[in-house]
Design goal:
Helix content is 6%, strand content 31%. By secondary structure, the protein is mainly beta.
Length: 318
């Protein structure tokens, strides 16, 4: 019997996803002013305002993220409470090291707090971190901006194209149009870009075109890979199928343009249909096969003439 390991992304927020934390530097709520502090007045702030831990396995513990509380005013911050967790899922985060406690902060002084994420359930988990001083106010991260396991999504376009995609920007536009109009993708309200490389006119690598948070999910909700920043992608064992189009059906054809190696790198200037601007038989483009995931050929299979119109695009949310 095979044991399936479930992964989740943790998103942690301080104040009010590798785990990601998003924090907004809080103004001292006790100062009564949005402007610079007056002479002798403290003002507490926190940095960063947000943080994303990236993908973390279910019940595993992330590396620690450091948050710094600073008195940006010109008077001492006194009557301070210990840093506190709040937000949607505070129990999925731990203050691993507290260098602040209830100590006062002199003008210009700072202290640090280290936070780890340990998701208990699959999916996004978030938190807020704050500290309050009677004189100096409250500093808080952006609401629920400390995050772990923020998922990304992948689909294949229902339409097929020849090698003239209008360049990388044109391919992104095709993905965005499909994503915003698809019955499964439109409700996600995401920005969509093509998982595509080129070598002509300067190298662009597919793996470098995204901020990878993970896990990567297909449109059936199954995990494609827990950590999409690591190439080649490793299947999570959930039977995910990336060959699902924006409306939930299969691809129009069984192939996609990629211009890429299985490591997400450009295949070179001879395999990108002249930077994805040509639909003639003078140029070739590299492609993948949608039905073979997690085998390498899902993204890195064979070259073909750019005049052929049998190829979709892999579109990934950002």
């Amino acid at each position: 019997m095979t044991k399936t390991i479930e992964w989740i992304s943790v998103l942690g927020l301080v104040g009010c996803g590798q785990v990601a934390a998003h924090l907004d530097a809080g103004n001292g709520s006790g100062s009564g002013s949005d402007g610079p502090p007056s002479s002798g007045q403290p003002m507490l702030a926190v940095s960063p305002m947000t943080h994303e831990f990236g993908p973390v396995a279910l019940s595993a513990t992330s590396a620690a993220a450091t948050f710094t509380f600073t008195n940006t005013g010109d008077g001492p911050a006194t009557g301070c409470s210990a840093p506190a967790k709040a937000g949607t899922n505070p129990d999925d985060f731990t203050i691993a090291a507290d260098g602040c406690g209830t100590s006062d902060l002199a003008a210009g002084g700072s202290c640090t707090v280290m936070v780890t994420a340990h998701p208990s359930l699959k999916g996004i988990r978030t938190m807020t971190l704050s500290r309050t001083c009677t004189t100096g106010g409250t500093a808080m991260t952006t609401d629920n901006a400390v995050v772990v396991n923020r998922p990304m999504y992948i689909f294949i376009t229902q339409a097929s194209y020849n090698g003239n995609l209008g360049g990388i920007a044109g391919a992104d536009g095709l993905c965005q149009l499909a994503g915003t109009s698809g019955s499964l993708t439109a409700p996600l309200n995401k920005t969509w870009k093509a998982l595509l490389s080129k070598g002509t006119g300067g190298t662009i690598n597919a793996k470098e075109r995204f901020v990878w948070t993970g896990p990567m999910l297909d449109l059936t909700g199954k995990t494609v890979t827990q950590d999409p920043s690591t190439w080649p992608w490793v299947n999570a064992g959930e039977g995910s199928i990336i060959g699902v189009n924006q409306n939930g059906g299969g691809p129009g054809n069984s192939y996609v343009w990629s211009g890429s190696t299985i490591n997400g790198l450009s295949k070179g200037a001879t395999q990108d249909c002249n930077g994805w601007t040509s639909d003639t038989q003078s140029y070739s483009g590299w492609s993948g096969e949608t039905s073979t995931f997690p085998n390498n050929t899902w993204f890195d299979s064979f070259g073909t003439l750019c005049a052929d119109m049998f190829y979709g695009l892999y579109c990934v949310s950002q």
